[in-house]
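Quick log. Single chain, no ligands specified.
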Amino acid sequence: MHYAVPRILEAAGMLERLYTDFVASKGAWKALGALAWSNGLLARMAARVPEVIPANKVTHWPSFAFEYNPRQRRAGSRAELTRVHLWADREFCQRIIRHGLGNAAGVYTFNSAGFELLEHAKARGRLCVMEQTIAPAVVEDRLMAEEHNVFPGWEERSGQDRYRTEFAARERAEWSSADLILCGSEFVRGGIAACGGPADRCRVVPYGFDPPWQQTPKTARVSQLRALVAGAVSLQKGAPHVLHAARLIKGMARFRWVGRVALLEKAAANMRMCLDPVGAVPRPQMAEHYNQADVFLLPSICEGSATVCYEALAAGLPVITTPNAGSVVRDGVDGFIVPIRDAEAIAEKLELLTRDRELLRWMSANALARPRKFTLEKYGERMLAAIRQAQANHQAALPASAP
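-> predicted structure:
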């Protein structure tokens, strides 16, 4: 959702200032627009344009961005990468604090990136809003440790991350400072509650997606069902369970996975025997992959609210996913919700759609209709309603001014 939050706030007349590390829409950096066609780093930099937001409302620090990115690349371990993220989060907040909040009535931050800013704003009576984009670090770490224990040799396992405890503590401290915690799914809200966080200040606000394509319901005119998976080929996305399901229904469905391969070679070779790993592709090319599929599969172990599920529904694909993906899929209506780590359940649903093409067509039509409730406009309405309610509660709780 390309700069969705600041664009929504600007359209509502609520944006005082956007702080970010880098944009290609200010000063000499605007020349990067001519390089948008290129690949790699330059293309990604050129895409950093927050459209519809006036340039005089954007503050960025290119020097910070150009220090942060090399530090990430040089990190030789997961612990070192976490340490770099913690440094960047603190540095970014301090830069904003030094610049000042101006006339802003509140701040909007993202998990782990806003602790100092939230504390600063809270001390000055400003509304504090944070977005928890994924399940809490404690929940994520537990789930992924379980996967590594069950599937050793699938991914390179990093050593002990001594900074991860600090990272999780930072998240928890942000919850304490926030007047409102926006969660993309019930899975995220439940994770905060499970960690003893303030569930009463959490509001589930599903994301939105405006498809750049037109689609019709799927009819699966080919004999084999075409199943698409998207995202990194990894333990987090449920790679072993996709492989197991593919083996269970071998010959009944073809599997294609779009995304970088994050597996060790032996595991990657096993995956290649049962599915087609396409690798990472530019986002505009995803439309063609959706068009060539009959069903979308995402058996994620841990997410926030996976964007690819919104995209797949908008492409008319019934979605088979897990509660932990945080999707808006309705079980039995526009897809199926299966337990995590349940390859048998995945295979059963794929076999059902293979044998019952009328069910596939009906679910596809429902999938196409579902995103109408989850456009960017609808997302903005839900987000603004939550912020305005929090703002009203915040104002009511402030001490009355002395006469």
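The chain has a mean pLDDT of 92.
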